[in-house]
Amino acid sequence: MKISKSKPTVKIGLCGFGVVGQGVWKHLEEKSEEFEKKLGSSFEVAKIAVRDTAKKREINLSPSVFCKDPLEVANDPEIQIVCELMGGTDVARKVVLAALAKGKIVVTANKALLCFHGKEIFEAARVNGGHIFFEASVAGGIPIIKALREGLIANRFSLIYGILNGTCNFILTHMEKEGQPYEVILDEAKRLGYAEADEELDVDGWDSAHKASILGFLAHGKWVSTDEMLVGGIRNITQEDFAYAKKFGYSIKLLSVITRDFEADRLFINVQPTLISRRKVLANVDEVYNGVCVCGDVVGTTFYMGEGAGQNATSSAVICDLADAVSVLNGSKHPLFSGEISPDESNEENTLKVSTLEEVTSKYYIRMVVKDVPGVLAKVASVLSNHGVSVASVLQQEGNQEKGASIVLTTHKTTEQAIQEMVKDFEITESILSSPVLLKIGEFED
Ligand code: NAP
Ligand code: HSE
Predict the structure, then answer these.
(1) Phi, psi of 61 (to 5 degrees)
(2) pLDDT tens digits, residue range 47-98?
(3) Which ligand is closest in space to the CA of residue 191?
(4) Could you tell me the pTM of the whole model?
(5) Which residue, 293, 260, 305, is CA-closest to 156?
(6) Is 9-140+312-348's fold the same as 144-307's?
(7) 140 in ligand 2 pocket by Cβ < 6 Å?
(8) For 333, which DSSP code?
(9) How many Å lie between the centroid of ligand 1 and the Cα of residue 38?
């Protein structure tokens, strides 16, 4: 894809030529002249690593451009920018570290990689003079990394929350609006290229957690690991939950919430299916869209929305990084992306602690199917009272001996610790027939 010989050509290596890799190639090709005019440089995709070089692809290129070993791309002295678009955390980590060890610029869309190995990767960039760019790793096409690092640099962030997974939002939207079955919509999300190779990362909340960890690092200088978060997914939500949500004026969204208490010097990240009032903008962010609300002490509340997954949105973000990479090659420095000013090195890293579950409170919706026999409500009440959980409302729907009856409870504010322990108790209570569905009740001021 040589655009011009008269201007400097930047050689790129792609590790991965799937949904995202092919999208990046396509848009670089289609807009080559525009990029050259805007950036003063042209791009040449010099080498592409894939697992299966014989695979038939959306885009047909000369076999000579492909190789099987992504380290060959990372170590190629001709390649200045290495795009890691493979996914996974093992080979991807080796490739990124190898490229950074050579002082190269790395662009990645891999949120799991950054969540698990971000600290090591930033350090490798610092030590070897490389750069790591990762705009596509959070919220697809929304330039949220740029917003936090550049546009909102004047701010401290007490709260960042939003929808960070396109696949889950696509599923929830189609379940809610069209009553389609979960499995059917998940298959469609896979076909459209939204879902991760391992779809459990999406539907069980882990992908959102990886992204929230990156936002937490950018906003607060601390990598919070997924085992320090409260993470839930959307698998057990049913049409019954949507019916209750509608009745009370809510939508159900998988929300990631990053809360910073500056006075107590505490940080907490949770990813949970959440009831959110339909009056809120976020409740109306549907389909594959993501929406992120960032509350800054100087700017106030800002809101960002755009497609959160898929070939085009993600390619847009990767190409944004390629443009920044060209600036670096032309001599400008990005202190964060070169690991030179890592928020990790600030004082905050030494004192900022992750909140414990006893320190965080929330209101909840709990739905469970119970045996339709006398005394069940009393058993439920005793579990609630054992954990000090105060009930705000109870709804019981008439059931039958065979299928049982649904009970829907909402709680007053309760610690996360009490709620989690209470759910574990419900799970082993004999008269409760299925795992309770737990939805957080989202209360956001703006
Ligand atoms: P994908 O369609 O599954 O493509 C992955 C590509 O990487 C394939 O070309 C595959 O080769 C190649 N690959 C995987 N492991 C490899 C290895 N060990 N050696 C060589 N090549 C290898 O995945 P994708 O959807 O493009 O996602 C790529 C990355 O972007 C992931 O980190 C994902 O989380 C992230 N991301 C995706 C989206 C999205 O909407 N899809 C959005 C944002 C971020 P073969 O083709 O030969 O199998
Ligand atoms: N699987 C991810 C999602 C891709 O659905 O949001 C974008 O990161």
Answers:
(1) -125, 165
(2) 999 999 999 999 999 999 999 999 999 999 999 999 999 999 999 999 999 9
(3) 1
(4) 0.95
(5) 260
(6) no
(7) yes
(8) -
(9) 28
By CB atoms closer than 10 A (0-12, 13-18, 19+), residue 159 is middle
CA distance 14 to 1: 13
Domain 361-441 is classified in which CATH homologous superfamily?
ACT domain (3.30.70.260)
- Residues paired with residue 437 on neighbouring β-strands, in sequence order: 367
Q: Is 10 exposed, middle or buried (0-12, 13-18, 19+ CB in 10 A)?
A: buried
pLDDT digits (tens, 9 = 90+) for 4-41: 333 589 999 999 999 999 999 999 999 999 999 988 88
CA of 74 to the centre of ligand 2 (A): 25
Partners of residue 14 on adjacent β-strands: 48, 83
- Give residue 330's pLDDT band: very low, low, confident or very high (50, 70, 90): confident
Domain ranges of the chain: 9-140+312-348, 144-307, 361-441
Read off the tokens for 139: 């919220």
Name the CATH superfamily housing domain 144-307: Dihydrodipicolinate Reductase; domain 2 (3.30.360.10)
CATH 3.40.50.720 fits 9-140+312-348, yes or no: yes
